[in-house]
Amino acid sequence: KLVVLGGSVLSVLGFLAIIFGEAAILLYAGFFIIGIGVANIIPVFFSLLGKQNVMPISLAVSAVGTFGYLGILAGPAVIGFLAHATNLYAAFAFLAALTALQGILAAFVYRKMGV
User: Fold this and answer.
1) For residue 9, what pLDDT is reported?
2) DSSP 114
């Protein structure tokens, strides 16, 4: 639980450093913090599949895998479209909001599972 929620908070802080930082070192630190924050979230979500009892394991693995690959394939295109339509700061703010939403959803899932 600490890895997912803490990773989400770290990632949001990293995005905020990218958005509001003006020095190059803050930008590098922001990307580094984002990487540390999100690196362990998906493996933890996959490990939670074995503890849930709402869906059969085979369907749950397929659902998580599908959403993961959807994010990998469609994410850069959506971010690029948003950055082109507005600016890069808005695209990073959108990613920060999605990361915060991920943390909120993770807290909901943990509460629902009683973990």
Assistant:
1) 93
2) T
Q: Do the beta carbons of residue 27 and residue 18 sit within 8 Å?
A: yes
Distance, in Å, from the CA atom of 50 to the CA atom of 114, rounded to the nearest integer, reads 14
Nearest one of 103, 95, 109 to 7, comparing CA atoms: 103
Q: Give the pLDDT confidence of 27-59 residue by residue, as tens digits.
A: 999 999 999 998 888 888 788 787 778 888 888
Report helix, strand or coil for 15. helix
Tokens 């690959």, residue?
69
Evaluated on CA atoms 29, 33, 36, 39, the torsion sign reads negative
Minimal CA–CA distance to 31: which of 79, 95, 80? 95
Q: Which two tokens stand for residue 42?
A: 């998906």
